[in-house]
């Protein structure tokens, strides 16, 4: 898959190149790589990114929330899809230097105008926004998955989509992934399934039978 917009495609190719370099460095570092995780993109990956992009195009959300900008890989896909459907994209990240890099790349791609970059702790930033959210990517450090989901859940619109990454890989994330999947399943109005896409995506929709908008 390619972006039809040459500026976006160029930035995507740069990210893909860095991803290869990152993967080689991480292989070299082995378990020591975890302590240096802030140096790496750690993105959702191409397959998951295109799937999320497709979902946004198909679902046409008004407000999109990305938890975990990192260096902007998934933000590029989200911003492109947001531009296509006229959505607002809010992206949250704790590390200012990562978000600054993301902003630079999105500016190069001509997409920064579609992104509301918010820097700080996601739980604090979430408390400051009353929502509603129509589409959410949960992709921050995994010990924050359950608290972030619980903070977002009351602010989801009817038929909102929540996608959570790293449900299968890396292995170390599995206990937190399991806890998140249980938290989602405990809500009576969340329909959810684990997809074998990328590193494992939990695809959840807020929906109650007989309460569909369409
Ligand atoms: C796996 S990376 C996100 C990858 C990104 N979504 C992508 O696909 O390119 C997780 C990010 O969450 C950020 N993060 C960790 N704790 C956070 C917090 N409390 N608030 C906001 N962001 C946080 C980390 O700094 C890291 O950049």
Radius of gyration: 16 Å
Backbone shape: globular
Structural class: alpha/beta
Number of helices: 7
The fourth-level CATH homologous superfamily is: Vaccinia Virus protein VP39
CATH architecture group name: 3-Layer(aba) Sandwich
Query: What percent of the residues sit in helical stretches (DSSP H or I)?
Result: 40-55%
Averaged pLDDT: 96
Query: What order do the helices and strands follow?
Result: HHEHEHEHEHEHEE
Content of β-strand? 15-25%
Strand order of the largest sheet: 3-2-1-4-5-7-6
The CATH topology annotation reads as: Rossmann fold
Query: What is the total domain count?
Result: 1
Kindly provide the name of the CATH class.
Answer: Alpha Beta
The set of bound ligands, ions and cofactors reads:
S-adenosylmethionine
Low-confidence stretches: none
Number of strands: 7
Record the SSE blueprint:
Blueprint: H1 6-29, H2 46-59, E1 63-67, H3 73-85, E2 88-93, H4 96-108, E3 115-119, H5 122-127, E4 133-138, H6 145-152, E5 156-164, H7 174-185, E6 190-195, E7 201-206
Helix pairs in contact: 2-3, 6-7
This protein binds S-adenosylmethionine.
Residues 41-44, 68, 70, 73-74, 92-95, 98, 121-122, 139-141, 144 line the site of S-adenosylmethionine.
What's a concise summary of this model?
With 214 residues, the protein is an alpha/beta fold.
Outline the structure in words.
By secondary structure, the chain is α/β, with parallel strands linked by helices. It has a single domain (44-206), classed as Vaccinia Virus protein VP39 (Rossmann fold). Helix content is 42%, strand content 20%. The chain has seven helices and seven strands; from the N terminus they run H-H-E-H-E-H-E-H-E-H-E-H-E-E. The chain has a seven-stranded mixed sheet, sandwiched between helices. A hairpin with a 5-residue loop joins strand 6 and strand 7. Helix 2 (46-59) runs parallel beside helix 3 and helix 6 packs parallel to helix 7. The two termini are 31 Å apart. The model has no long low-confidence stretch (mean pLDDT 96). The chain binds S-adenosylmethionine. The site of S-adenosylmethionine has 19 residues, from helix 3 and strand 2.
């Amino acid at each position: 898959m390619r972006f039809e917009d040459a500026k976006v495609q160029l930035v995507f190719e740069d990210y893909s190149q860095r991803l290869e370099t990152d993967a080689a460095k991480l292989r070299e570092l082995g378990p020591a790589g975890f302590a240096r995780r802030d140096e790496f993109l750690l993105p959702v990956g191409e397959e998951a990114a295109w799937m999320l992009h497709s979902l946004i195009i198909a679902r046409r959300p008004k407000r999109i929330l990305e938890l975990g900008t990192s260096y902007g890989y998934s933000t590029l896909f989200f911003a492109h899809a947001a531009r296509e459907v006229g959505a607002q994209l809010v992206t949250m990240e704790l590390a200012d230097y990562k978000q600054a890099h993301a902003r630079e790349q999105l500016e190069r791609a001509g997409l920064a105008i579609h992104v509301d970059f918010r820097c700080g702790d996601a739980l604090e930033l979430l408390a400051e926004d009353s929502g509603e959210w129509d589409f959410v990517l949960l992709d921050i450090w995994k010990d924050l998955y359950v608290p972030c989901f619980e903070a977002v859940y009351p602010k989801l619109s009817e038929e909102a989509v929540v996608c959570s990454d790293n449900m299968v890989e890396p292995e170390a994330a599995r206990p937190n992934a399991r806890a998140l999947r249980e938290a989602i399943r405990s809500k009576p109005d969340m329909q959810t399934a684990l997809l074998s896409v990328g590193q494992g995506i939990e695809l959840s929709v807020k929906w109650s039978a007989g309460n569909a908008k369409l």
